[in-house]
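User: Can you write out an input/output pair for a complex, sequences first and structure second?

Assistant: Here is one pair. Inputs:
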Amino acid sequence: MIDKICLLKSVHQHFKDGMTVMVGGFGVPGTPFTLIDALIEAEVSDLTLIKNEANEDHMGLSKLIEAGRASKLITSHLGLNTTVIDMMNRKELEVEFFPQGILAEKIRAGGAGLLGILTDIGIDTILVKNKEMTTINGQKAVIESALRADLALIHSAAADPFGNLVYEKSARNFNPIMATAANIVIVETERLAEHGKLEPDSIHTPGGFIDHVVVLEQLSDEYGILEHHVV
Amino acid sequence: MSFKEKIAKRAAAEIHEGQIINLGIGIPTLIPKYLAGKKKVIVHSENGILGMGNPCKRGQADRNLIDAGGTYVTIEPGASFFDSALSFSLIRGGRLDLSIIGALQVSATGDMANWIIPGKYAPGIGGGMELAQKSRQLIITTTHTTRDGKPKILERCDLPLTAKGCVNTIITELAVMEVVNDGLLLRELAEETDIDTVLSLTAAEIRIPQGNIPRF
């Protein structure tokens, strides 16, 4: 039996200046807050971060960015984070935006060992200004390169020691695709299942993609309900 | 009834039983209450839900279950969860019957702008471009003019486009307009207004059909 379980403090050895880091999550669900905190403690800098959004002000990825550790963010939408938008406008952070599904597909392609994708999304807009174009089957297309990272930080509801993962509800989002697209993949899990106890048909990410499993002893307040989103 | 409620109620009438729909932020979020108990639809949320239900009641929020705007929601029987790549396969693959979203500007040829005001507002495109470009049908719900009274329906958009020629129907507090081959066609007029008012607040030609124009 292969056992990838490691202590939280041992993940620090994988954090390096200048690295590219993919971070799962869409809002609070699926964001690996504990691993992000570890990355903040490690005091590495000049990071390129890839995440759907930057969490909300002063939470999760936003804390890492606010601490000045990132030089670039690759994302799809920052509408719920004025702090990071202000940093972008002050040119303290370079931000590259992609349509949400194109961001997902670039990562999926990176994980699948492809070099890029062809798409017609944004074809008549300023989004494709300065982008490489081609024609396929008589149709104009944008060439979008695949995205890979040095490191991916993933959150799962359950994991076994091999790294087979199960996500919960809308916490799945970018986690399964990012788990395929980095050289080192670390997952934090809410629950550890015994080897062989996860139903093979129900596993969302096969353990072959995962390098290290950190079992969360408790969930910090950041994982909880955001009262301003309860209507 | 407020402007926004009136627009939402009228937009709800465009939705058909059994459709897979996506509702944007703002006015579209008011639509579900006008469907309640009348039509069964399947609501898609970009963050990986098909079969989303209403926002949940206070005290019943599930930390792992939000919509794309962050609101805690419920799910309907038969719902499914999936990752972000698959979520956008539903959109780009043409499986969404209808999306209803807001806009900053719409043109007479169905061009739409809703994601960037250069120098003022540029939080990123999110899923909007793919929804606008690939939904089988796109309805825009918007107030007829900006807060300072400027027309939002124009011959040509001057803001950067979200997508070209993507809009089928525009619903405002004053009128329902269809984008047809040769421009805009007036389909319905609000009870409180008249044709001259609509024309004076629109910076594009609108074709007025013969005969009685239905009211809403």
